[in-house]
Specification:
Number of helices: 5
Structural class: alpha+beta
Radius of gyration: 45 Å
Helix content: 25-40%
Distance between the termini: 103 Å
Strand content: 35-45%
CATH architecture of one domain: Beta Barrel
Largest sheet: 6 strands, mixed
């Protein structure tokens, strides 16, 4: 049997051996490298659909016609025949300037015409009588010349009197101030009873025609050259005539104001300036839009957004805008290959459609694009991809359905 001291020694020896074994195992385990699992990311394949490329601009609206109504004759404003802000038709009576002085001038001019015609009749009779008498030698050639001059002077007097009568009739007509166009009236600038047109044509009111309405905007030189190339191609294909005016080419344009989503108003290109402004490098263009309704949908002077379609892409690839990265070398996508290795792919982005970016070059259909977890995906490293629909694909489908319906 072991005594007590020997037992204690044996126990200590066993504990020392166990401790050495434990420390040796820990050291071996600490020296082994265990690779971390691949980081999880979400990938999606690009959406493939037909899209239209647009050029986008900002512009301002202007009325198709705006006319200032001014007094064309002087006199006291006798009456007003409209409510400020009302809609009127061409020819409607707006104001009456006291017509009595002008009626008196017309009467006097009519009397002057009658008197001139009577003098002409007498001069013509004298001339004809002397024309017969000269054949008999009863009058001299000088008398004949004088009689002819009196007749011609009387004829000129008739024409002058008739011109004075016409001017008096015009002045009388100008006392009835009517609407030259159809549209919406502004406020009256002069009250009834005031003297108008005394020193200059007094502004009485204004009329604005809202339907149609114009939108003016400026196109830069690069876009202009692109549009000219498209136009030449259409001419070569026989779609449009080279001599056809711009408004007859029916180039569509879409408009939205600051309170509207998208571009709900469709119009047509109407006019382009004849040259590019060398100081700005732009050319001014105009589009025309229907603007029916009371009140009208669009008012002159509004800031508006404009979108001009320029090309159709049948099988465009679209990805979420947040999947597109940028560095000093340009724009790129993170693409996950068949072995789940991330590749940084340089791409050429196109326009934005419903929150999705068109990719013109650098991406093929069916490739997996990282759309979530971009900060965990490193080029050349493996990832644990989870496939999901491209973010925003529901909006694109809804837009496509709306365009087809």
């Amino acid at each position: 049997m072991l005594n007590h001291a020997n037992a204690r020694g044996l126990c200590g020896l066993c504990m020392a051996v166990g401790l050495v074994t434990f420390l040796t195992a820990c050291q071996q385990q600490a020296n082994e490298y265990v690779a971390p699992p691949p980081p999880p990311v979400t990938v999606a394949v690009p959406i493939q659909r037909e899209v239209t490329d647009y050029l986008e601009y900002t512009g301002t609206t202007r009325a198709a016609q705006t006319v200032e109504i001014r007094a064309r004759v002087s006199g006291f404003l006798q009456s007003m025949h409209f409510e400020p802000g009302a809609t009127v038709s061409e020819g409607d009576l707006l104001f009456v300037i006291d017509p009595r002085p002008y009626q008196a001038r017309v009467t006097a001019a009519e009397a002057e015409v009658a008197n001139s015609k009577a003098l002409l009749a007498k001069a013509e009779s004298d001339y004809q009588r002397k024309a017969l008498a000269i054949k008999k030698g009863a009058v001299t050639e000088a008398d004949m010349v004088a009689s002819r001059a009196e007749r011609d002077a009387a004829d000129a007097g008739v024409r002058a009197a008739e011109a004075s009568l016409l001017q008096a009739q015009l002045d009388l007509a100008y006392t009835q101030v009517t609407a030259p166009i159809s549209g919406r009236l502004g406020r009256n600038r002069v009250d009834v009873g005031n003297l108008v047109g005394q020193s200059d044509p007094t502004l009485l009111t204004s009329i604005t025609q809202y339907d149609p309405i114009y939108a003016y905007f400026n196109m830069n030189e690069r876009d202009l050259l692109r549009m000219l190339a498209i136009h030449r191609a259409r001419v070569a294909q026989g779609d449009v005539s080279v001599d056809k005016p711009l408004r007859e080419s029916k180039i569509p344009l879409y408009l939205g104001d600051a309170s509207e989503q998208g571009y709900p108003h469709q119009g047509w290109m109407d006019f382009a300036e004849s040259s590019v402004d060398p100081t700005t490098g732009t050319i001014e263009l105009r589009a025309v839009f229907d603007n029916v309704g009371q009140p009208p949908m669009l008012y002159p002077g509004l800031f508006v957004r404009l979108r001009l379609p320029v090309a159709d892409r049948e099988s465009a690839l679209l990805v979420s805008e947040r999947a597109v990265g940028a560095d000093p070398a340009g724009r790129y996508l993170l693409v996950v290959g068949a072995d789940d290795v991330v590749e940084q792919r340089p791409v050429e982005p196109g326009q934005l459609h419903d929150g999705l970016r068109v990719i013109l070059k650098g991406l093929d259909p069916g490739e997996r694009v990282v759309v979530n977890g971009l900060q965990r995906a490193r080029p050349g490293a493996k990832v644990a991809p989870t496939e999901a629909p491209m973010p925003g694909s529901e909006d694109v489908a809804a837009t496509a359905t709306a365009e087809q319906s």
